[in-house]
Every structure is written in structure tokens, then in C-alpha cells.
Amino acid sequence: MGKHVLVIEDEPNIIEAISFILSRDGWTVDTHSNGHDAVSVVCAKSPDLVILDVMLPGKSGYDILTELRQMETTRKLPVLMLTARGQSKDRELAEKIGASRFMTKPFSNAEVLEALHELVPQ
Prior knowledge:
This protein is α/β, with parallel strands linked by helices. Helix content is 43%, strand content 20%. It has five helices and five strands.
């Protein structure tokens, strides 16, 4: 049985690229593209892992991650943060809030797959 990932990202090209490589690797992929209701979507979909963009319309990935870490049901959910902003302060903030992994755009397909396999062993 494949694993289930929820990709919260607002850039269509990135959604398409990630969805393609993960589907090919056996993952069930759901996507969502805004921050407004992302937390409720995570709760409704119950994924094994979330790939979360930092800059989203409505609410930042940092705010979403903070909310997820405050809820009992999603406190330990693996979250891979993706961002175009790769400064060390961005990475430090993500780690402080509770990101499982932090990856900057652009990323390689192999990098994403490696990170997901580490966070959710198949």
C-alpha cells in the first residue's frame, strides 16, 4: 500500500512536478493551494506527510506549521517545508517551529524522494 502525501503549494508548475514524481514513486498525492483553510484540509485528508510551501496566499507555511504542531492529531506529522527563500534565518525558524525537513527551491526530484523516504519509510 502506497503512502499518502498532501502538497500545499500555490505554484502550478511545482504542484505538477511534485505530483508526477511522487505518483510515479507509488504515493497517493493530494494537493491544496492556499493557506486560508490548509490546516482543516490536513485534518480532513489525514496524510502520512505534508509538503508545505512557506509563501502561500492567505496564511504562511510557518503559521500553518505552528497550528499543526499545537494540535494533538498533527503534532508528530512529518512536514517537509519548501521555500524559495533559503536564508539560514528561514531554515532556523522552520526548525524552531517544528519542520521535519527544510528544502529550498529549486530542488531535484531525487532530493524530494530521498527526504520523503527518510520521513516516511515505505
